[in-house]
Amino acid sequence: MNNNKISLTGIKPTGIPHIGNYFGAIKPALELVNDYNPFYFIADYHALNIIKNKQDMKKLCYNLAATWLACGLDPEKVVFYKQSMVPETFELEVILSAFTPKGLMNRAHAYKAKVDSNKNSGKDPDDGVNIGLFTYPVLMAADILLFDTDLVPVGKDQVQHIEMATDIAQSINYNYQKDLFKIPKPLIQKETQLVIGLDGRKMSKSYNNVIPLFLPENQLRKLIMRIVTNSQTVEEPKNPDESNIFSLYKLFATPEEIEDLKNQYLKGGMGWGYAKNILFEKINSHFKPMREKYNELISDKKYIDKILLEGSEKARYIASKKMRKLRRALGVTN
Ligand code: ADP
Ligand code: TRP
Description:
The protein is mainly alpha-helical. The chain has helices spanning 19-31, 44-47, 54-70, 88-97, 102-106, 109-120, 131-134, 136-145, 159-176, 217-225, 244-252, 255-267, 272-298, 301-330, and strands at 6-11, 37-42, 79-82, 151-153, 185-187. It is built from 14 helices and five strands. Strands 1-2-3 form a three-stranded parallel β-sheet. A two-stranded parallel ribbon has the order 4-5. The site of adenosine-5'-diphosphate has 20 residues, from α1.
């Protein structure tokens, strides 16, 4: 059943996709595919704020496209595209900018964090801040509002951006006394909204604590062995709720398996090496079929190009209709 509602999400090609991206965005997005009209894309112009090398940009875009496809994205069902291939997005960004108070952008987490860290290290507050970073939320609002999105599957860190898209949409709707934009809602899943990394902090490319999705088996094993634990001995009973291993295990295991491992923690007699091994087996078997698919896809760049071109054509058809309607509503065209 399709309720004719739109789901939309984007991921920036700024690094190797990891299991935080998978559980926070990719998996929930793919679960919506039969009930929504899905629009999923590669946010390459968002990534341009970070990736300034041509070869890196190309490679990261292919990696991310192959990742979505390997995780099960069906291009027959999903409008799958690269943001840069839908230029209507950038015209809309200009329009939205005219309705976005600077103060709203001052409050954006990513910008604020950068300014705070500059201040703390005695630098100019705007050191290393380009306008692209400052107006990041406006571009993201354009991505979302262009397609009259109902639902945006994302991790918790993106909620503020969706609230900003809502604020901007509402002020335009109010100004023209017309529902020009649909108000989007985030879809956040309680269990996977914040996947922790090897060191217990949020798994993030910026913290260098990620478990990439499709690492070769031996490298994956080595990485899992690096998960930070405390210094308790094998004999000691352990608290599963304070363990990074357990918290990752919960993402993959069935309720019975979770209960079973929990009991082993509480009983004592289980060493960290053993728990890491169990986790490795789970992650490895979960991603093995996808990894094989990924390795096939990544060597077929022509196929990926074709999928993204077809997706962007579908997206542009809808986006250009929306833009014509908007231009008329603003009075810039008849
Ligand atoms: P990163 O923080 O590694 O740079 P991105 O900002 O590119 O990741 O995130 C892409 C998507 O994946 C977003 O929807 C984001 O909320 C989600 N995401 C990223 N890291 C996590 C995480 N640790 N837990 C849950 N979701 C995450
Ligand atoms: N800002 C998102 C991130 O950092 C990526 C993104 C860009 C996005 N445009 C979007 C997510 C639109 C959802 C909807 O991960």
